Amino acid sequence: MNSAGVLILIPFIFSLLCFVAGKKWSSVVALISSVGSLFYYLLLLSSYNVKTNYVAFGFYYDWIPSIRASLSFGMDAANLLVLLLTQIVVCLAVLATMVKGNTRTGAYYGLIGLTHTFLNAFFSSQNPMTFLIFFEATLIPVYFLILNFGGPKRKQAVFKFFIYTVFGGMLMLAAILFYQSNMFPQLRLDSWAEFYQFKLSLKYQYWLFTAFFIAFAIKAPIFPFHTWQADLYSQADRPTLMILAALLSKMGIFGFVRFNFFFIQVVYDWFNYITVLCVIGVVYGAIIAWRQKDIIRLIAYSSLSHIGLIAAGTMTLTNIGMQGAMFAMLAHGLAVAGLVFVADVMIRRTNQHTVDSFSGIARNNPRFAVYFFIILLSAVGLPLTCGFIGEFYLIWALVEFKFYIGLVAALTLIFGAAYMLRWYQKTMFGIPSANILGFQKLSLSEDYIFLILVILILTLGLFPADWVGFGQFAYKYMNFIPDN
């Protein structure tokens, strides 16, 4: 049975097993779950033909007919890359926990499995109500992961995150209910096509778009809705942070991909104001990242900068912008997951969190230095890595739409190279510091994680055409209802 429902069911069943498996076997069960989900997704991907059947492997359940609330899932060109990213990152995050001295409980892996379940459901959603339900549901396991397994200031950080996200979710709930109540009563509301075809009066669109924008800007996050991000990142345990930074940040961007075409005229009217916010985030995040000493906070502000660029690209509502945004989500997810794991390797071995605490690591562990360098090159958008392709498309789209906005957004390439290369230079080169004299060689599982990331970064960078091309089918679908 080929169905998006099975892709959701696999991690859910295994997450329940993790809760009862105990410390000894829960990590193995979680790894089997994530690897099984990855292979099942690749099976679906291998039989997916976007040209003949845009939405495939659908699963529909008429949940509450009286209010036309249905659960609808499927694979399409818009969610293809983020679903692939989800399976890869969760698999790597679970593998990242399987190190010497791992004491994580079955509850930890069960919560990881539930997060995986809800992320699959969210990205594969085929109508706004399903989208909303799992937009909110994903918050629950993440909340308990950080609350129970995070750092010493985790309660304040996760509470701020919870309040911000729930506020955005309530706005989106009101907007979706209003939107659906004004649609034709004979519609089932089981596909995005019905919503792209229907247009509300423009006076309502401004209010509804504002509600959606705030919800997605918080989740991404985008300046100035970002104040929860650095605190939460610094308190999350690092395998969980791989999922937070690589996947949860994409939920907000994915919301723009799905919903911006509901409000085409509003986006055009407000383009200058919205993209100015995004571009301020690009520059602000980069400058703050440059000033950071703490490695995790550096990664947090770096992510803020890159997310601002991707969000700005979605606002162009152009073919190039959509292709760039969708591919950049995949590329950024791989790069930021890799950077978090680099930080994890360094912090676990030394119990030091600041850039200035390390030097000379390349002398003791040159293989680690090579992995770090390749991931870093993708993070700064160097050609022949996957990071370059998405950023090139995004800047291209912004320059064509508004030259001066695209020009300022392109500064992310310069700023990103500055603070990332500074991090690399300070930690990898120079005389080995006392903190790294006992810096152990990479374990087999750590090598696997880095090899997978490096191979994906280089392969997608060298052969991006087919993957980027899915964006044009999504763009066509969201602008013109397909014949099939």
Overall description:
The chain is mainly alpha-helical. The protein has one domain (4-479). The chain contains 20 helices and 2 strands. It has helices at residues 4-46, 80-97, 106-123, 128-137, 139-149, 154-181, 192-197, 202-219, 229-235, 238-259, 264-291, 295-314, 319-350, 361-364, 366-379, 386-401, 403-409, 411-428, 444-462, 465-479, and strands at residues 56-64, 69-75. It has a two-stranded antiparallel ribbon. A hairpin with a 4-residue loop joins strand 1 and strand 2 (69-75). Helix 1 crosses helix 3 (106-123), helix 2 runs antiparallel to helix 10 and helix 5 runs antiparallel to helix 6 (154-181). The protein is globular, with a radius of gyration of 21 Å. 55% of the residues are buried. The model has no long low-confidence stretch (mean pLDDT 88).
Rg for CA atoms:
21 Å
Domain count: the total is 1
Shape: globular
Q: How would you write the strand order of the largest sheet?
A: 1-2
The ordered H/E elements are HEEHHHHHHHHHHHHHHHHHHH
Helical/strand content category = mainly alpha
Quaternary structure classification: single chain
Q: Tell me the total number of β-strands.
A: 2
Number of helices: 20
Write the layout of secondary structure elements.
Blueprint: H1 4-46, E1 56-64, E2 69-75, H2 80-97, H3 106-123, H4 128-137, H5 139-149, H6 154-181, H7 192-197, H8 202-219, H9 229-235, H10 238-259, H11 264-291, H12 295-314, H13 319-350, H14 361-364, H15 366-379, H16 386-401, H17 403-409, H18 411-428, H19 444-462, H20 465-479
Antiparallel strand pairs: 1-2
Helix pairs in contact: 1-2, 1-3, 2-3, 2-10, 2-13, 3-4, 3-5, 3-10, 4-6, 5-6, 6-8, 6-9, 8-10, 9-12, 10-12, 10-13, 11-12, 11-18, 12-13, 12-16, 13-15, 13-16, 13-19, 13-20, 15-18, 15-19, 16-17, 16-19
